[in-house]
Amino acid sequence: MSMTERQRTFLEQFWELHREVKAPLHYSVVAEKLKVSNISAYDMLRLLKKQGMVASQYLLPKKQRGPGRSTIVFYPTQRGKALFSRPQPEEGERGEWEDLKEKILQGLRKRKDEYDQMLDELLSRIPQRKSPMLHSTEMIAAIVLQVCQLGEEARERLFKEARKLMLAGESGLNALAGLSLGLTLVEGDDTGFTDKLFSYVGRYQEDLSRLSVESKEALSDFFLEVVKTVEGEKV
After folding, report:
1. Which of 145, 137, 135 is nearest to 203 (CA)?
2. What are the two backbone dihedrals, phi and then psi, of residue 70, each rounded to the nearest 5 degrees?
3. CB atoms inside a 10 Å sphere around CB 71
4. CA 79, CA 65: separation in Å to the nearest integer?
5. From CA 97, how far away is CA 137, in angstroms rounded?
6. How far is residue 227's CA from residue 58's CA, in Å, rounded to a whole number?
7. Under CATH, what is the fold of the domain 5-82?
8. Using CA atoms, how far apart are residues 100 and 220, in angstroms rounded to an integer?
9. Which residue of 15, 27, 78, 97 has the lowest C-beta tally within 10 Å?
């Protein structure tokens, strides 16, 4: 289940509050700090719990022995923390990404008749990429080159739909992975290629979840540049 922007914002605020107090929190405390009603805070925490972002436990009042009324408290899971605790990309990586982006675009312009070879080169290089941003960039280029293997009509239709997907932000980038796998299963007979792409797509989706909003916007823009380049438009 994907998170809405409201859920993600609430989770980030809850995570910051938990870091501040260093202890599980009752929903009434969360409600007071985030200036929402007790019911809204409780309902949101229960929803985030279903998504695996938050966990809960019951506590007995201090100095009480035996049966008694327990209190429910919430705390972020490791999965929830991972959304916000990652380090931001350093300037050096940003420069490396700009260089990689330009290298890919230049290759697409100069090697119009060698897209099959470019795709093979990308697929052999992708597993060596440690950076989520660089790995995602080459995956996007590989997916576009894969679409280029189709007939002209199918290619134009898919690129048109993919452009619309980019308006959805992260969900659009995730949808590219499904597009790639669908094309491989329908069009391809190479089992080795299919297995390889399946293994890459899993990491691609994981990497997207670790990137900042700004990085994902940059990847969406990069996808559009790549499509324009392979279609011969001026970028």
Report:
1. 135
2. -90, 165
3. 14
4. 34
5. 8
6. 53
7. Arc Repressor Mutant, subunit A (1.10.10)
8. 15
9. 78
Instruction: Kindly tell me the burial class for residue 95, based on how many C-beta atoms sit within 10 Å of its own C-beta (0-12, 13-18, 19 or more).
Output: exposed
Q: What angle do CA 50, 56, 62 make, to 5 degrees?
A: 165
Q: How does the average pLDDT of the chain come out, rounded?
A: 80
Task: Give tens-digit pLDDT for 148-206.
Answer: 877 788 778 888 877 777 765 556 787 777 766 666 555 554 545 556 666 777 788 88
Asked if 197 and 147 count as a contact pair (C-beta separation under 8 A), the reply is: no
Domain ranges within the chain, ordered by starting residue: 5-82, 91-230
215/207 Cα distance (integer angstroms): 11
Q: The tokens 């992975």 sit on which residue?
A: 177
Look up the pTM and report it. 0.58
- Residue 214 and residue 151: Cα distance in Å, rounded? 34
Residue 235 confidence (pLDDT): 43
Q: Which two tokens stand for residue 191?
A: 């089992």
Place of tokens 């910051």: 16
Rg (CA), the chain: 23
What would the pLDDT profile of 79-107 be if each residue is shown by its tens digit? 887 777 554 444 457 788 999 999 999 99
Q: Find residue 75's DSSP bridge partners.
A: 55
| CA 19/CA 81 separation, integer angstroms | 10
Number of H helices, E strands in the chain: 11, 2
